UniProtKB/TrEMBL annotation:
The lineage of its organism: Bacteria, Pseudomonadati, Pseudomonadota, Alphaproteobacteria, Hyphomicrobiales. The keyword Ligase applies. This is Coenzyme A biosynthesis bifunctional protein CoaBC. Residues 15-223 are annotated as: Phosphopantothenate--cysteine ligase. The chain holds residues 178 to 400 of 404 of the full protein. Keywords: Decarboxylase, Flavoprotein, FMN, Ligase, Lyase, Magnesium, Metal-binding, Multifunctional enzyme. CTP binds at residues 102, 112, 130-133, 149, 163, 167. It comes from Rhizobium wuzhouense.
Length: 223
């Protein structure tokens, strides 16, 4: 802190942020994944740190650099992400931004699956991954403020509100990720903040601006 600046609003508070996709192995050389660059989650982790929070970022595989001022734990699979998040409780703030793969392969292969001449392609049997946000939202050591995202391609408000309830979150940041919006992988985002008390529509902003505004929103609502 500079001599002329006041205390930072999130000083002394601990935050956990998830970001990026998860990769779920099929065999040693193949995986299934979600589309996510990690840009929004990483920007939020950095913005919370700038406001003075002690931030742990649990990141899936991304190509962007680790943000400054943040402790970064790198994971691959949803179960690893869940374990890393739970191991870092208690915390004051949780912001779950990761695009977690909803399913993993039920019985992954230790060996590379080979093509069998003349045989049909191997079927992929999937099983559901743990819901990390829901786990945190209902945890005995639940953070004071639990924030989730909702990636939707239709019925953004209704789906976002249902997720707020189901996952035990205080806030759902909902966005329309239809391909024509360019949000997935892009540098801009247009979000709606869904709480028990209503919906707040934010204008089209850069992902860094969304991060700064969200960190400020968190600072005023965590108290
Ligand atoms: N999330 C999570 N763990 C999962 C799935 C989702 O922590 N296994 C979190 C995401 O990080 C996000 C929120 O839950 O904060 C909503 O994710 P989303 O994929 O939109 O919701 P789902 O509950 O998976 O529902 P669906 O994909 O069917 O819309
Ligand atoms: Ca999902």
């Amino acid at each position: 802190e500079g001599l002329l600046s006041g205390p930072k609003p999130l000083s002394g508070l601990k935050a956990i942020v998830t970001s990026g996709p998860t990769h779920e192995p099929i065999d040693p050389v193949r995986y299934i994944a979600n589309r996510s660059s990690g840009k929004q989650g990483h920007a939020i982790a950095a913005a919370l740190a700038r406001l003075g929070a002690e931030v742990t970022l649990v990141s899936g595989p991304v190509t962007i650099p680790d943000p400054h001022g943040v402790r970064v734990l790198h994971v691959e699979r949803a179960e690893e992400m869940r374990d890393a998040v739970i191991a870092n409780l208690p915390a004051d703030i949780a912001v779950m931004v990761a695009a977690v793969a909803d399913w993993r392969v039920a019985s992954g292969s230790d060996q590379k699956i080979k093509k069998q001449p003349g045989e049909a392609p191997p079927p992929l049997l999937l099983t559901e991954n743990p819901d990390i946000l829901k786990t945190v939202g209902h945890h005995a050591q639940r953070p004071r403020l639990v924030v989730g995202f909702a990636a939707e391609t239709q019925d953004v408000d209704a789906n976002g509100r249902a997720k707020l309830e189901r996952k035990g979150a205080d806030l759902i940041v909902a966005n329309d990720v239809s391909p024509e919006t360019g949000i997935m992988g892009g540098d801009r985002n247009r979000v709606r903040l869904i709480t028990k008390s209503g919906v707040e529509d934010w204008p089209d902003l850069s992902k860094d601006e969304v991060a700064d505004r969200l960190a400020a929103w968190i600072a005023t609502h965590v108290q």
